[in-house]
Amino acid sequence: MPRRFRTLVGSALAIALVASAMVSTPASARSPGDAPPAASARPVKPAVTGSANAADPVRPKAASKPAAPKRPTAGKRGDLAAVSWRKPAENGSKITGYVVTPFRNGKAQAPSKFDASVTSRAVKISPASGKWTFTVAAANDAGTGPASPRSKAAVPVALPAAPTIIAVTAHTSSAQLSWIRPADDGGSPVTQFVITPYIDGTAQSAQVVPSVTTATVTGLTRGTTYTFTVAARTALGTGPESERSVPVTTDVSPNVSYVGPEGTVNAAYVGNVTVSNGVPPYTWSVEPSPITGSLPPGLALNRLGPAVTGVPTTAGQYPVIFRVVDAEGREGSVLTVITINARPQIVVPSLALGEVGASYSQRLTVLGGTPPFTWSVAAGSLPPGVTLNTVDGFISGTPTVAGTHGADVRVTDAFGATDVQQIRLVVQARSVVALSVDDPSVNFADEVTFTVNIGPGEAQGSVSLFDNSAGTRTLLGTFPVTRNQATFTIRVPDFGTNQFDVRYDSSNTNAVVNSNSVNVQATGVAGQALITQFRQSGVAGPLDQYVSIYNNSPIPLPVSGLRVEAADGTVVTVPPTRLSLAVGQAFLITAADYSLGAVAEPDLALSPDPADGSCTVVVGPVCSLGAIGGLRVRYPDSGTPGTGTIADAAGSTPGFYRGSPLPTFSYTPTVRNIFGRLREAGRPLDTGNTRADFRFLTTTGGIQGGIPSAIGTGNPRNANGPRIVNALLQTTLLDSGVSASAAPNREYIAPTPTRRGQLIIRRTLTNRASTPASQIKLRISSLSQLNGAPPPAGSSPRPPYADLRWRNPATLTSTFTLSDGRTVTVNNLRMDLPSDDPPGGGLYSEATLPLPLGGLPPGGTLNYSLTFSVESAGSFWGAWDVLALGIDPPTVSTAASKRSNRTQVNGDAGVVPRELTQPRSDQARAHRQRHESN
């Protein structure tokens, strides 16, 4: 599994689409052997786009409702209106029906629904006078689309005129008829034709066919003489019948057919008229008329053959009626269309550029001629390695020699007609791709700029950047080539040696060429990985240990190879199979007797040697994070183990702290305890002074291990745990109509002889994200308490300072009437384990908010309260972060983090509450800028 998750600089991703340079052939040009015209001269390569990761798979576009039809036409006859329209765009799903809505004098009437079989329908209307207009809307599986513009007012229309039968021939139990459409359709499109057989003048069952002009009547009785009529039908009804056809007798009258190929101008042509049934000798004729035409110029009917022969002189399509009469005067006739093609003409496109070593593919096309075609090289030669396919006209292969190559190409059609055209194919030398970097030695996550030069020929297309470190090949992004060069910037994604190369994908040739490799050495910087919590003993014994390593860098942090070193020489190295750590997340390493698995499962759990149960130090499996004294984290940014840059250190032993050390235990504490890093504005505090950044926390408070502790809770984070999303889950005052210090936003309950004073803070949380939050937690990050966090930066509370503890409420919910008259319910939050009450909670203590089924939706709100006991009165402060699952946090820079939505409150506890941090007018401004509740 790849161990790196890559992040690229956004500015490098603004990439224009690059498409292959193609020359389209004329719409009438045909590729030999293909029925449809060829769309392009060579296969089109996919467009190239910028991407920070490997390209996403192509997904089918979701179907949507059909487009609106264009303005329909309408006519009326009596109490019926004929409405006709054209089929609109389907938009990914087949049209299943139509909705036609009438309007009488502009007022909509009841709509009518129809299936999608035809696009002309009769709609019932009132015979009363009025102006009738209509709209049409199409429907598919996605729903009904928009309606068309209204039609013009329906005008009176008539039924269609009678068609004209021009040919009929009998088969064994059927007959084939051809007719000409009526000269006048009455003002409404013909949708069907009705064929009626007659026996001795008596009409038989009619047969209905679509709007065609040749059809076969089936179900006839063998040896029976029939005549036929044809009538046209529109949405408004059926017009008059045609005159009856000549009589034909099934299985007796001559059955006529024509077998002939397409022809080519100036090439000898032969087609045959065949007949079955009837009594010879036969009389053959061609029935010319102004409607159907006659034989193509240059062709004639040989009545002895009977055959159509000659040398056609004019290209076109010629409808012809062949008629035959047998010796007893019975006749049959058939309509056929003879196609004469122009002489073949090769369409010479602008041939694609070739490149030595790159596959080449170019299709030649032909206008005119009669298939099948045969291709050949008449003179000259194609480039070595490239051949011409004699059947389909494909020039393909892999050129081996650069240069300009000329050849005369010949095409020959089925009648021997030929065309010869000269082609010129240029092959350039094989591309050489050179990759360079502006700085081969940088800090981890720094930006570096790569330059790609391609030559010696013309280079167009894109280059894809790959990282080949640690034996894996990972796509980092794709970038355009402009004038034989590409330049782009990325952040170095790993510690130590990063090895890069690019693959050039040409769009003007089919070349795919790899570059040289370049190395960039990346050195870790102190503070990019921070220890946020750790302990080296706990209630479960000396191996009840854990450490959380937080990604404080701007990109995903590779944890593979990170070393956690203890003051007693114990070393834990993260295995190379671990994934990268997302920005703002923590990697949790636990020892053998870790006791907080219900709070957070470890990302790396240490365990004894399975062979003998021993705990080995440095080499092999380890199950300990070392004895009391501190921990430090070292990057794998050098080639020698144990010599990499120190990322962070926290302890009391020299070499295991920055600035001042943590206090030293005089004995091993046996209660739940941690050293926890303080947080400001949603981020870990990193002043470079270990003692100032950390606090010793226990669930009981007081002196533990000989060190004064603050009330707090070990709530470690892991890589899959909830993230801080203060900017997306915003906290505001419960009642915006009163001040932050007034009820119900803040309430102080004075102490009694049997109970300490209480401070209650009430707020409203709103989901400003675009996705539901599946879990939400509040986590105390600052609180005025004994041995606890200092006052927030920028505030100046007056001593003495209050000593607060988070307490569980007496009831789970409360109801309040707000200043605007609304009545709301507030959830009184209870602390999550392992916090306990008494004695209560403090730093790192958490509470889970009760959410509706499916989570808190976008725009959803939730009211909550926190209850604190006032152990001693004075000025107070408090802050908490909002953590959630289901919502991706925005990327927050160090500067931007100071504008976090972390909730912070200040005041005096036990005396008259008062805001201490800033004047009221400044508070309002800060509320707008930082979305904070003060």
UniProtKB/TrEMBL annotation:
Any GO BP: polysaccharide catabolic process
Keywords assigned by UniProt, alphabetized: Carbohydrate metabolism, Glycosidase, Hydrolase, Polysaccharide degradation, Repeat, Signal
Signal peptide: 1-29
Biased amino acid composition, Polar residues: 894-906
GO molecular function: calcium ion binding; hydrolase activity, acting on glycosyl bonds
All residue ranges annotated as the Fibronectin type-III domain in the record: 65-158, 159-253
Keyword set includes Membrane: no
GO CC terms of this entry: membrane
Region ranges (Disordered): 26-83, 894-934
Gene3D superfamilies: Immunoglobulins
Bias-annotated ranges (Low complexity): 60-72
PROSITE patterns given in the database record: FN3 (PS50853)
Protein name, per record: Fibronectin type-III domain-containing protein
